[in-house]
């Protein structure tokens, strides 16, 4: 790999709270950020905005090839995801397909594209956005949400196993509800009930989530591979 190339990170879902927070953190450390979302995020210093539907496998692979050609691609973060609220007995198959398509199939395409590029270029680190819902399930979101995130957790382990010999590390975070747009999707009574079940009695902050992403994306994490890192305020009844 040429030392003249700037180190870079690809972040899908970069227009969202989590992806945007991660992008700002990497930019501050001198990374070139390929910031991808369905609508390209706003232009920023040392940022390449990309309009990307993560369900489009060819487009995801094209982005990986571009980033690897233009820069030293070290990190790929799959943050693209959606959720919708629907009681289990009212959950539609159309929403099932949409949520699985973005959250799970989109993450699969991202892992596969990053894996192919990093295998050629000497390794790298993949971080996936999972969820506590992938460990506990839930009756608030559409059941596809928890199912998709459980799939992301298993996918993470598969790519960790496959990538270990090539210096490709794959880990995931599994956060509970985070301050910001996620929390605003709940009513005040729902949040109050939720907080009562958290031993720490507060929500996660986005800074805490980004810090965890940065740890898993750092070469100093070394032996950390195939991990689903729980960020849940000590909610320990994880199945």
Describe this structure in words.
The chain has one domain (7-231): Rossmann fold. 44% of the residues lie in helices and 18% in strands. It contains eight helices and seven strands. Strands 3-2-1-4-5-6-7 form a seven-stranded parallel sheet, sandwiched between helices. Helix 1 (17-28) links the parallel strand 1 (7-12) and strand 2. The mean pLDDT is 93.
CATH architecture: 3-Layer(aba) Sandwich
Spatial gap, N to C terminus = 42 Å
Secondary structure tally: strands:
7
Q: What is the fold-level CATH name, i.e. the topology?
A: Rossmann fold
What is the 3D shape? globular
Strand order of the largest sheet: 3-2-1-4-5-6-7
What's this, in brief?
The chain is α/β, with parallel strands linked by helices and 239 residues long. The chain contains eight helices and seven strands.
Primary descriptors:
single chain, 239 residues, alpha/beta, Rossmann fold, seven-stranded parallel beta sheet, 7 strands
SSE order and pairing:
Elements (H helix, E strand, L loop, with lengths): L6 E6 L4 H12 L3 E6 L9 E5 L5 H14 L1 E7 L14 H29 L2 E6 L3 H4 L6 H21 L4 E8 L5 H4 L3 H9 L9 H12 L10 E4 L8
Parallel strand pairs: 1-2, 1-4, 2-3, 4-5, 5-6, 6-7
